[in-house]
Design brief:
This protein has 16 helices and 16 strands. It is α/β, with parallel strands linked by helices. The longest helix is centred in the middle third of the chain and has 22 residues. It is globular. The termini are far apart.
Length: about 475
C-alpha cells in the first residue's frame, strides 16, 4: 500500500490554526490531517448505503477496521514540531480525523467536525454569536436546546425569538432584521413532529440579511434521510448519540458545513475549548455509521405500521410525517427521503398516558431516540421537563403526549406490547374482534363511575396477548 502523501510544510505567515489544515483530498477540500482519505482513491461516488460502509485508511498492517489511536501526544521529529501531522489529540487525532473525513463524504459537505455530544455541537455553533445578536428559532425545540438558548439570552446578551417554524411565511418576517445573526431549525421537530420548509426559510433569511446563518438540527432524520446543506442550510449539526451511533453506547456531536471560513471558526473553538470527540468514541461512531442504512430502513418501516395502528385501530391523534393525515405530509416528502422512526400520539388524559407508558415491556421508558431498542416516554416529564409548564402551554404542547422511538425489534411484537399496555391502561376497548377506540360516552361514564383505570381493590384479568390487528 502506498504511503500517504507528505504534508505541505507551513509557510512563514501561517499560524497554528493554518498548520492544522494542510492535506488536500480528492475533491480539493482542505481537511485536517488523516492517514488517507475516506473516499476511494479513484474518487468514485457510490450509493449512500455503500458509502456508509466503505472507507480506506493507511494502517501499516492493513487492518480491516480503522485503528484506535488511543494516545494524547505524538512524538515530533524536529525541535519546533514543524512538519508533523499530529502533536496533541485535543487538536487532532488520526482516528477522529478519519471519522470526520468519512462523515464529510457521507454528508457531501466541505468540512465535518465531531465533538463530545450533540449539545456540545450546538454550544460550539452558538460561539459564533456576540452580545446583541438575535436568534430566531422554533417554538417546539429539544429541551436541551431550549435550555442553552435561555441561558444565552439571560447571561450572554443574545436576543432569542421563538416562532412557529412550520409557518415561516407568516412567523419569520415580523422578527427578521439586520440584527438577525442565526436562525436555528429542527425538522421534523421533537416531539410535535412539525415540518419546516428549510428552502423557504433560507431564502427569506438570506434575502433579509445575507450575513445570517441558517443552522439545522438534523438529528431526527440523520444524513441518510435528509441533506439540509443541499436545500439551504449553512451549518448542520446532529447528535451522533442517536441514529449515527445507533446503540446508545457513546455520546457524540457532529457539525458539517460547506463554508470553509465557518469551519475554521468552529474548529478554533473546538480546539480551544477541548470538546473534540475522544479517539475511542470516534472509533465507536465509525462502527455505528456502517449499519445506519439497514437500521433506519427497518426502524421507519416499523414506525409506519405502528403509526397506522395507533391512528386507524386505536383512534388516537398521531403525529408522524409518514401518515397522509399529517398536515405537512407533502412538504416532508419533498425535503426528505423518508419519514424517520420517531412519532408521538395523544391519549387525551395525562394519567392515562402515564399508565400506558408504565405498562409497556418491550418499550423501555427512556429519553433519547435512534438506538436499536424501542423507547417510550412522556416528553413533558422527561426530555422537555426543563421547559416550564407555562411555556409549554403557550406553545400548545400537549401534556398527555407520548413519544415512541422505534427500534429494530419485530414490529408485530412491538404492536402486541403496545396493545397490552393500552388495554391495561384502559385506553382502548376490547371486543371479540380485537381492540377499538373508546367512544366519548364510554370515557365520560368511566370517569363518573370511578372506572377510569383498574384498581388493586377490583382487579381485572388481562390476557398476556391481544388478538393481533393488522396495521
Amino acid at each position: 500500500m502506498a504511503a500517504p502523501p507528505a504534508a505541505r510544510p507551513p509557510t512563514a505567515h501561517q499560524g497554528v490554526l493554518a498548520r492544522a489544515f494542510r492535506n488536500i483530498d480528492l475533491e480539493g477540500h482542505d481537511f485536517p490531517p488523516s492517514p488517507t482519505p475516506s473516499s476511494p482513491r479513484s474518487g468514485k461516488k457510490y450509493a449512500l448505503a455503500t458509502e456508509l460502509v466503505y472507507t480506506e485508511h493507511g494502517d501499516q498492517y492493513n487492518s480491516s477496521s480503522m485503528p484506535i489511536y488511543q494516545t494524547a501526544t505524538f512524538k515530533q521529529t524536529s525541535a519546533d514540531g514543524s512538519g508533523a501531522e499530529f502533536d496533541y489529540t485535543r487538536s487532532g487525532n488520526p482516528t477522529r480525523s478519519h471519522l470526520e473525513r468519512h462523515l464529510s463524504k457521507i454528508t457531501s459537505s466541505a468540512r465535518c467536525l465531531v465533538v463530545s455530544s450533540g449539545m456540545a455541537a450546538l454550544d460550539v455553533i452558538t460561539r459564533l454569536l456576540q452580545p446583541g445578536d438575535e436568534v430566531i428559532t422554533g417554538d417546539d425545540l429539544y429541551g436541551g436546546t431550549n435550555r442553552l438558548l435561555k441561558y444565552l439570552s439571560t447571561t450572554g446578551g443574545i436576543i432569542v425569538h421563538h416562532v412557529d417554524t412550520a409557518r415561516p411565511d407568516i412567523s419569520l418576517p415580523p422578527v427578521l432584521s439586520a440584527k438577525t445573526r442565526m436562525v436555528l431549525l429542527e425538522s421534523p421537530t421533537n416531539p410535535l413532529i412539525k415540518i419546516c420548509d428549510i428552502p423557504l426559510v433560507s431564502r427569506l433569511v438570506h434575502a433579509a440579511n445575507p450575513g445570517a446563518i441558517v443552522v439545522v438540527d438534523n438529528t431526527m432524520l440523520s444524513p441518510y434521510l435528509q441533506s439540509p446543506l443541499s436545500i439551504g442550510a449553512d451549518i448542520v449539526y446532529e447528535s451522533g448519540t442517536k441514529y449515527l451511533s445507533g446503540h446508545h453506547d457513546l455520546m457524540a456531536g457532529v457539525i458539517y458545513t460547506n463554508s470553509l471560513p465557518l469551519a475554521d471558526k468552529l474548529y478554533f473553538t473546538i480546539n480551544a475549548s477541548g470538546c473534540a470527540l475522544s479517539p475511542f468514541d470516534s472509533w465507536l461512531l465509525l462502527r455505528g455509521i456502517k449499519t445506519l442504512s439497514v437500521r433506519i430502513e427497518k426502524q421507519q418501516s416499523s414506525a409506519q405500521r405502528i403509526a397506522e395502528f395507533l391512528e386507524s385501530t386505536c383512534g388516537f391523534k398521531v403525529r408522524y410525517p409518514g401518515l397522509q393525515s399529517h398536515p405537512q405530509y407533502n412538504l416532508h416528502n419533498r425535503l426528505a427521503r423518508g419519514p424517520g422512526a420517531v412519532l408521538s400520539f395523544e391519549t387525551g388524559d395525562v394519567k392515562l398516558s402515564e399508565r400506558v407508558v408504565e405498562n409497556t415491556r418491550l418499550w423501555a421508558i427512556s429519553v433519547s431516540f435512534g438506538c436499536v431498542n424501542s423507547l417510550i416516554s412522556m416528553p413533558c416529564m422527561m426530555s422537555h421537563a426543563s421547559i416550564n409548564a407555562k411555556t409549554r402551554k403557550e406553545r400548545d404542547f400537549p401534556e398527555d403526549l407520548i413519544r415512541l422511538c422505534v427500534g429494530i425489534e419485530d414490529v408485530d411484537d412491538l404492536i402486541d406490547d403496545l396493545q397490552i399496555a393500552l388495554v391495561k391502561a384502559g385506553a382502548v376497548k376490547v371486543t371479540v374482534d380485537g381492540i377499538c377506540p373508546k367512544s366519548v360516552n364510554e370515557e365520560v361514564e368511566g370517569e363518573e363511575d370511578g372506572e377510569d383505570a383498574p384498581s388493586e381493590e377490583s382487579p381485572t384479568e388481562y390476557p398476556e396477548t391481544v388478538t393481533p390487528v393488522a396495521a
